[in-house]
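[Q] Does anyone have a clean structure-token version of this?
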Amino acid sequence: MKHSLIILLAGVALLSSCKSKKGGTATPVYAPITEAVFAPGHIEAGGQFTLTALNDGYITDVPAKEGDTVTDGQIIFKQDHTTAAIAQRSATENLAIARQNAADNSAVLNQLEQQLHTATEKLANDLSLRDRNARLYATRSVAKTDYDNAELAYQSSLHNVEQIKQNITATKLSLQQTLINTRKEQETAIANSSYYDIKSPGNYTVYNLLKKKGDLVRKGDALATLGHAGSMLITLSIDEASITKIKTGQTVLTELNTEKGKTYTGHVSKIYPSFDEKSQAYTVEATFDTIPPGLMNGTLLQSNIIVAHKDKAMLVPAACVNPDGRAIVKRGKQTDTIRLKTGIISTEYVEVLGGINIDDKLIKAY
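[A] Here you go.
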């Protein structure tokens, strides 16, 4: 992208101009000079962004229209969500079953509690028999084998009771884990189903609807352009050679393509820090001092960013100065080629910082 410098002169007449013909002469003059960087651009709504699809599916309805002001959470697009609805219903049913199984009076836990009750009763009975055989064995009324068998039965019952208790604890934990997982699956299914209703994330104006009813969209496809209607911005593209001259707060003079010949004043408000590969330029934003009435989003424009100004500068016509700064200077009867120290350069004029005097004459030779 090319850039240009605009030189603004006030109350100056170059009496002898190099523009007339090759070999003509011109005398340097002092005049105000302003340097500006030219930048094309367009109008963009503040906070403008692209709304995208979160799932694959057909568009079944578009409740919003271009130009509408939508509120936070308002539906702009609806997608077919048959599969998501089935998944949500299945997840809800699984959650109900998991809750029932995890309840204290569930069939699974009741069965284990019944096993524990039976085992506890058997443990009490085996303990009584063991104690009885122990007393009888102490009086040699029963054989040692009978006592050992009673002890073995008691220990087996004791182990069985502990095992059932551990089983109940493990089963409760497993059922609770299943409940947590099924609850998460249901919440995920509800969230996924809600993504098929594409909603506005805030209060915005709908500028462009990029899809219509019946269109098949894929996840990530652009659906609409939204932004704040009350804060229209000037978005400009700046070439690499000029970006270092741009600073926030600089004055911006803008001409809209819809209003040729009329200039609006604004100021640089933001300089994006990265190079845009697509446009091969840097992006700069500016705000209007007064927003033009009826301003339309996307309007093309041209701007000049004022990057430097001098109230008094020595100027000579650009046609008298070689691109490398050399100029043919006539002083009296002597003519010399001199390398000038230059400042601001445009297609029309060159600011001279050193090398000639105000009385010197420059010859058009380039």
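[Q] Thanks! Anything notable?
[A] Helices lie at 82-102, 107-138, 144-194.
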